[in-house]
Amino acid sequence: MRILVVDDEPEMAALVSRGLTSEGHDVVSAHDGVTALGEVLESPFELAVLDVMLPGMSGFELCRRIKERDETTAVILLTARDAVDDRVRGLDAGADDYMIKPFAFAELAARVRAVRRRDALSAPARMEVGTVVIDLRRHRVRCGEKDLPVSRTEFDVLRVLAEKVRETVSRAQLLGEVWGTTENIDPNIVDQYVSYLRRKLDASGADVRIVTARGVGFSLVTSEA
Predict the structure, then answer these.
(1) Are residues 91 and 154 in the same domain?
(2) What is the DSSP code string of 72-94?
(3) Which residues in this protein are found as 4-aspartylphosphate (predicted)?
């Protein structure tokens, strides 16, 4: 997932960012509400983890502005104040979850996974990119009228790339989304499975291709792009 972390305490922002990055997420951090809003307006995020007490713009207001921009972006609010009024205010602003500081990172990671599961449940049953149709329920891929035989891992790599079509997906993000970790695993395994998938797509005559952004990651594009 692409996640925005906003906290006016640099050490806290760095701690949360490192933890989420180690879980395979693509993380951007900011230390004030105005800078964070600029990041949101520049490119979309799937989740924002926001401290309530921020300079320039409160976490409540930032949450509201994020939801106005894209209501599908999930928001987890962080606060040191365990007051019912604050929790109500945050939820009324559109927050999906609320955590009280201090907290264990393991709990935050679990709540992020819960957000991902909710997104998966509300996701469409299939995805279409050019002539390629990805059946998310049956784990099948079709190109035109023909089935494209892929392994489960190849399917998951294609799904992640298709979710961000024409965007570059980093190797770390693919490791996190497909293999569930970035630790104790050779990142070259991503290149290996992308190579398998690329050959199958090319042989099928599909009008989509996987493009390598050297040193960064991969993107799925249509031939006309």
Answers:
(1) no
(2) TSEEEEEES---HHHHHHHHHTT
(3) 51
CATH number at residue 151: 1.10.10.10
Q: Tell me the sheet residues that pair with 202.
A: none
**Strand pairing of 208-213 and 169-170?**
unpaired
The 10s digit of each residue's pLDDT in 78-98 is: 988 777 788 888 888 999 999
The answer to whether 115 and 136 are in contact (CB under 8 A) is no
> Domain range spanning residue 204?
126-222
Q: CA torsion sign, 22 to 26 to 30 to 33? A: negative
Q: Mind listing the pLDDT tens digit for each residue in 143-179? A: 988 899 999 899 999 999 999 999 999 999 999 889 8
Q: What is the structure's pLDDT at 204?
A: 92
Instruction: Identify the bridge partners of residue 133 per DSSP, sorted by sequence position.
Output: 128, 142
The structure's pTM equals 0.60
Phi (first) and psi of residue 111, to 5 degrees: -70, -35
65 shares its domain with 152: no
